[in-house]
Amino acid sequence: LLCNADVDNRAQWESAVGAFYEKWRSDPLVFEKWMRARMYADKEGIDVLGSLRQIQALPEYNPKGQSSIGRLWGAFGANPVHFHKSDGSGYEALAAEVARVDTFNHEFAAHLAHPFIVLNKLAEPYRGAMKRAVQQLAATPGLSADVLDKVKPLL
Which among 17, 51, 111, 142 is least buried, having the fewest CB atoms inside 10 angstroms? Predict the structure, then answer.
């Protein structure tokens, strides 16, 4: 499935991803690997952020489980095409997820913010878009010291 993550035929790729999900969704470990595979798609025409939102809505996804969150968002943050969209949507999505996770797991939320460490190494418009997302995250009321310690030095 990972080998097909950049397939040019989107219908073929979606069919393969859907069939894999139907077959393996009851196995938690395989389900988490399937989530990661969805986030590795690197073609411009594939809506990876939309896929991420769809996965979060599945009953097999655990919105408070470190493993589910880490595999899904970690893979998304490592996707150079879709995390680093010039419109900042990838950065904004991760910042919102870090803030959400921070409400119940401060340490893990700080870990989840790791993809932002490249902020000052990015060229424009990416740097500006990421900086806005990190500023918005840092301004979140009640944000933990763990997350603030991770993102404040970037600003």
Answer: 142
User: Nearest-5° angle of CA 88, CA 153, CA 133?
Assistant: 15
Residue the block writes with tokens 């499935």: 1
Q: Of 52, 104, 99, 102, nearest to 74 (Cα)? A: 52
Distance CA 37, CA 91 (A): 20
pTM for this entry = 0.89
pLDDT tens-digit profile of 9-52? 667 777 887 888 899 889 988 888 888 888 877 666 778 899 89
Sign of CA dihedral 130, 135, 138, 140: negative
At 4 the pLDDT is 53
